[in-house]
Design a protein that fits this description.
This protein has 77 residues and is mainly alpha-helical. Helices cover 57% and strands 0% of the residues. It has one domain: Non-ribosomal Peptide Synthetase Peptidyl Carrier Protein, Chain A. This is Acyl carrier protein.
Length: 77
């Protein structure tokens, strides 16, 4: 989780991501930020986030982003 939080803070400084459950819906993460975030996550976790993954359910919280990362990692194994 710490690696993900570091990426989130790098992409969107000054936001407390822990405990938030409406990052996408509230506009903290907009479409451009999510594209940058997806690229950083792809590189850091060696996964391939698809366009179909970019939905509010996957980006509304750090926990939901981490769950998506873990799904991709399991698929790759």
């Amino acid at each position: 989780m710490e690696e993900l939080l570091q990426i989130l803070r790098k992409v969107k400084p000054g936001v407390d991501f822990e405990g938030k459950t409406d990052l996408f819906e509230s506009g903290v993460l907009d479409s451009m930020t999510i594209v940058m975030l997806a690229a950083e996550i792809n590189d850091e976790f060696d996964i391939d986030i698809q366009v179909t993954d970019i939905v509010p359910e996957n980006f509304n919280s750090a926990e939901s982003i981490l769950a998506m990362i873990r799904r991709h990692q399991e698929e790759d194994d």
